[in-house]
């Protein structure tokens, strides 16, 4: 059978991966809206199937694990392109790129949240016993906010989103060092495989603490390792049979459907194993996008969703400002819950606008400025967009 090479623009923006990221960040926003204005209590309940409304409102956590897989794949792919192999990774350049991408928005967010707390603005005050603003700042900047919440309880929503960033950044602090110590890819790969497949067991082992089970390091790192393995596969097999990408896409789509729409049926059968189905399905979709034949139509009409994918980091960090604002307005106007769904569209639009503004005026200029000083010989913009968890 005819084989199709990975197309020339595999390391430019990948439309399929941006689409998957867009879907994921959309699910995160819809989840946080749904916790406060649940669709099942609106008049849509008389029209839409129950499992559809649940899928719309309650797959935000699963969406973050899709982001972990994508992030592992993209960052590893870029590293392989630049350094040739993970075992010859350039530590200084790797950390400089991660810092320039993550730090500007993170520092801005922590500063704004701290100011809102000090001003006593509702929804932003850290008031739970055992928690404090200085400790939250240390946890956010010290990449252990997930652990802090696991030990003390949930922080206000604007802080809470940083739990996933803590997992991702701890992984990328240690991962390059492990790569250099391993010295051989064949030594590294089995460790990644063990970590990737450990996901169900690492979650099950933490069942005594619900918050920590959701936000612990190892389960998230398992999903990131899955993406890393995917990038190594693409490097190893640069050509695939023409039908392989389609088969992977179908398998990944079916898997995500089962997790997101039939989760209640899967749980009694698979328990925490359904998370492995989630990360495996996400990997299938990522590989399908990476191996898609050149020139294939790219989901016309979904440019808006791909734009969400391109802005996923900025939207993820800032969307709670919109969610809190919209919900406050909804309550202040005495809106009937039956029409609560009408607030979704303006909320989503505002999330995109705010994310775009942050990307344009903070992320991109700051990243270029920092890279020009820390990596003076690199181009100002990355060739393949690296994902920070959403």
Walk me through this protein's architecture.
The protein has 390 residues and is mostly helical. The chain has one domain. It is built from 18 helices and two strands. Helix 3 packs across helix 15. The chain is globular, with a radius of gyration of 21 Å.
Quickly list its features.
390 residues; mainly alpha; 69% helix; single chain; two-stranded antiparallel sheet; 2% strand
Shape: globular
Q: Which strand order spans the largest sheet, edge to edge or round the barrel?
A: 1-2
Q: What's the overall average pLDDT, rounded? A: 91
| Secondary structure: number of strands | 2
Number of distinct helices: 18
Helical fraction equals 55-70%
Give the radius of gyration.
21 Å
Measured by DSSP, the beta-strand proportion falls in under 5%
Structure summary:
The protein has 390 residues and is mostly helical.
Strand and helix map with partners:
Elements: E1 3-5, H1 15-34, H2 50-57, H3 60-83, H4 91-118, H5 133-141, H6 145-152, H7 157-160, H8 163-182, H9 185-197, H10 199-204, H11 210-215, H12 217-236, E2 239-241, H13 244-261, H14 263-270, H15 273-290, H16 303-310, H17 312-332, H18 344-374
Antiparallel strand pairs: 1-2
Helix pairs in contact: 1-3, 1-15, 1-16, 1-17, 3-12, 3-15, 4-5, 4-8, 4-18, 5-6, 6-8, 8-12, 9-12, 12-15, 13-15, 17-18
